[in-house]
Automatic annotation (TrEMBL):
Keywords: DNA-binding, Transcription, Transcription regulation. The keyword Lipoprotein does not apply. It comes from the Bacteria. GO terms for molecular function: DNA binding; DNA-binding transcription factor activity. This is Transcriptional regulator, GntR family. The keyword Chloroplast does not apply. The lineage of its organism: Bacteria, Bacillati, Actinomycetota, Actinomycetes, Micromonosporales. It comes from Micromonospora auratinigra. Transmembrane segments: none annotated. Residues 14-82 form the HTH gntR-type domain. Pfam families: FCD, GntR.
Amino acid sequence: MTPAVDSVAVPPRGHRVRQTIEQLRARILGGEWPVGGRIPTEPQLVAALGVGRNTVREAVRALVHAGVLECRQGSGTYVVSTDELAPVVARRLTDDRMAEVIEVRRAFEVEAARLAALRRTPADLAALGGALAAREAAWRAGRVDGFVEADAALHTAVVAAAHNTMLAELYASVGAALRSTVAQAMGDTLEPERYVDHGRLVAAIRDGDPARAAIEAGAFLEAPSGA
């Protein structure tokens, strides 16, 4: 005999939303939806998670508010962080705290370069080479926004080559704030005197020289103009 709807144990709505949030978090942390990637559409999530549309909508909204997801009009919803640290950091690392941002970048990027020189794989070297070429092409194209993203992609590739998951997650959390420092350093146009060569950094990592890689990573972070 089929039970009446009222007799079926249905968890309270708030509990369902919390469970859905945790399911979404698990997929993000598990790498199914990586940082920078787009999550499935709302109907797809409804089907995959077995909950109602409103429950999915509230769970996604909560993660957007927490800074884990970002809704982009006409494009979809993207993963921007693996945790809630990103918006906290972004609020603190503002443009008027440039010196602190540079210090944070040094703390992450110098050690990442050193580890990358020790741990890089052939796949890492291919990624670094591609990212460096894309950065050079972006500079030649002359668009500040394109160059900032290409520069960030190269630094992210260096961090990835370090093969330290915690370092990569922390770096992703401060990524937006760090990109803003590069954009501020570049100004409205890409001027030749602001160009910083990163070829020596990639070469040091490719050569497996951790001391030289660390030196190269720190060299362009001595002054606020470094990118």
